[in-house]
User: What shape does this take?
Amino acid sequence: MPVSFVIDLLRRLSVWSFWPGLLIVIWGELKPSTSNPQIHLWDKLLHFTAYFGLALMATLAMRARHPIAWVVFSLILFGGVLEIVQSFVGRDAEVLDEVANTIGALTGWALGWAIWMLYDKLVGMRRPA
Assistant: This one.
């Protein structure tokens, strides 16, 4: 299977999955909490994973272009806004949740960027001289 086919498939899946993924993250952050408000590693892992996935999908969809930095920054800011909104819907806003969101978004962006750089290198190696 050619590398370009796989990358194109990943890009298309990312384009189509981003918005439903964002809606799932919003729902997950604003639905009533079923746990006590102590610091839970699982909760932070969920925050990390959610924003990692969103940033990775955005980076793959946009092909790591320069404006992706603004998209990732917007995701981080959006996560902070959702944390504030949580305090109005009966949930606790936690700084550590936003830290997990930020680390997840930056890691997803970095992985997406690395995938595109690897792709460019592989495709560049196949071009005739």
Notes: DSSP finds four helices and no strands in the chain. The helical segments are 3-30, 41-62, 68-86, 95-126. The mean pLDDT is 87.
